[in-house]
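ESCALATION

Customer reports they have been waiting on this structure for their group meeting. Please prioritize. Original submission:
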Amino acid sequence: MINHRYDFIYLFDITNGNPNGDPDADNAPRMDPETGYGYVTDVCLKRKVRNYVDTVKNSAEGYNILIKSDMPLNDKFRAAYEHENLPVDVTKKGTNPTAEQLARQFMCRNYYDVRMFGAVMSTGTNSCGVVRGPVQFSFANSVSPIFINHVSITRQAKTDQERAKKGETEMGAKQIIPYGLYVMHGHISAALANNTTKISEDDLNLLWNSLLYMFDEDRSAARADMEARGLYIFRHDSVYGNAKFSDLESKIKISLKDGVSVPRRFDDYEVHVNENMPDGVQLIIQ
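Update from on-call: job pushed to the front of the queue and completed.
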């Protein structure tokens, strides 16, 4: 059980990389074509949280991850029925509310991402119902417009004899942005958590750690220099909140430093924090 609603603002950046490729644009970094600003989807960021939890908890009890490519989802739902001694292969969505509820509770207890982000688990013949997640992320938007740089690369290793006959090297390409600073908004409903998924303060602390350190466990050629740059948590005294997020959002402002027209590092920006909070709200900076 948690006794406070939370909102938060999360800053991260990338240097010479691709934070979130767009499959509809040859995997180029995602960009709003009307404005030139970049964005990273909520799904991408939740994936990194899942991967971090999976790495540090190593499938410990209560910290399994549902959305990953280890086994089909319906097999996991069936396992919940078997564990709870419920009739298997006969409960489609809505046909046995009692069994569905028990299975849903099992999934929330055992899968971290289910109790945090929610899940649709009503496929197949062992329905575990639908869980509305109390933790929600927005898309992350870049603070400044991004520039997508198309970089040519070469490859010497050939995949087959036909390619080997064509020459010593082959040309390839990757698409990166030289630099981008992104801002994401997050929200945690204590009321929803306490009524449905029963997340704990330990679950919340794991989420904060995930946001701070998940990029360290996600290095790749496309994301070698991706870093968390700020986590600003607004903790409300009440379960239902003490202020509108629009009022809290205005407390964190980001601007380019004087004389900087093309940002290429985090130090090119200034983060202005107004710590004068509304009554019943505490700012926690991590």
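Sent to customer with the following note: The longest strand covers residues 170-188.
Escalation resolved.
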